[in-house]
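Protein: DNA repair and recombination protein RadA
Species: Caldiarchaeum subterraneum
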Amino acid sequence: MTKKSSAEKEIDIFDLQSIEGVGKATEEKLNSAGITSVLDLAAATPRELVELGISPEKAEELCLKARLLLIESGFLDREFVPATEVLERRKSMQRLTTGSRALDAMLGGGVETQAITELIGEFGSGKTQVCHTLCVMAQLPREQGGLEGS
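Structure follows.
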């Protein structure tokens, strides 16, 4: 698969040698570990590359160049987000009670903040009522199950 970069040169996202600094010897080391494409390299960690005998500086540089190449080529929409960053975001999420213990239990403790929750059901099943309740609950102090919203 080829895409054109901002410099309008053809980039083969499967060819490791399309990354500056990857020659035949480096490509063979990467292939021995199952890293056969730019996408594989972008998903690899520098530590994995160091274990293959690549210097720490070059390992970090190669991973970064692979990610940037995929972003430039339009193959990835945005930069790679490490799992530690995702974990920190998840830790900052809060749960808002719906006012119903049974519904909160089904939702794993309430409705998550920083997420989309979809309510579906028949006419008159209470979807709007749940939404109105959540609006009020978000304004309440924490000791009453709210999020101290304004």
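Remarks: The helical segments are 24-32, 38-43, 46-50, 56-72, 83-92, 101-106, 127-139.
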